[in-house]
Amino acid sequence: MTEDQKLVRFDWFVKFMLRDKSNFEILEGFLSELLRRDVVIIEILDAEGNKVSKDDKFNRVDILVKDSNDERIIIEIQNNKEYDYLQRILYGTAKTLVENIGEGKSYSSIKKIISISVVYFEVGQGLDYIYQGQTTFIGIHQKDMLQLSERQQELYEKKLPQDLYPEYYLIKAADFDENVKDTLDEWVYFFKKGEIKDEFRAKGIVKAKNKLKVAKLTPAQRRNYNRFLDNQRSVASFNEVVQKDLDDARRDGREETKIEMAEILLKEGASVDLVVKVTGFAEDVVLELKRRIEDEGTNGLN
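The chain above was modelled as a monomer; its predicted structure follows.
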């Protein structure tokens, strides 16, 4: 691939280029292909993941979009393995729901939330590479699906409870076999390979190919992008070293080394569940280590 053909990574685009309204068409194209309807982005709302912070080293890319249906869409790209990732996206939708209902307003003002995650690790076992999750109500005895009443349908302009409740999409980009079957697969191919073929015609993807060329970045953007890539390589190397040390500690029974690794993971923002999983320590031990680290950090500020 020549320099003129290289494209920036989609996670970097979402984090650093999407706030320019002229770029909305790219994300609108992907969302339209995934949701099977024409999506028009009205604005990008503030979300913690939009800000450059220490969480960047774990490549947590969250962006919150309001579309023309007044629905909220969370887009996240996650490279690094998290065993509690499914709970984390649940928390993300719950937090967004609470933050987007005005004080004193009725529950009917709650907006539908769609959570979309592009992940590059095994988030769960399954044969597919794209999964959709919804909340449905099924009768225990009659096995019928609960529907909204006529009055509710008039109020919400929806037919089913799942049209009101959060909806989840998981795209396991690393599991994609690169056999492009439809226009949505063209986007998934881009997520996995960082390339867009000349014959691709998915909505928004031609603009992505033209707009996201590395060669078209300004000098400042190029420096920013190169720092981002260096950071991701450092994170990957760090994870490999930590995993190797943890594996060695398990084999050799070096408790002290396992404690050191647990402390490193906690300081780098790993969840308690993840540290329990990789070290074999009991949860209360990890919680105590976490409390000690937090106390040391507090004391250091005094």
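DSSP finds ten helices and six strands in the chain.
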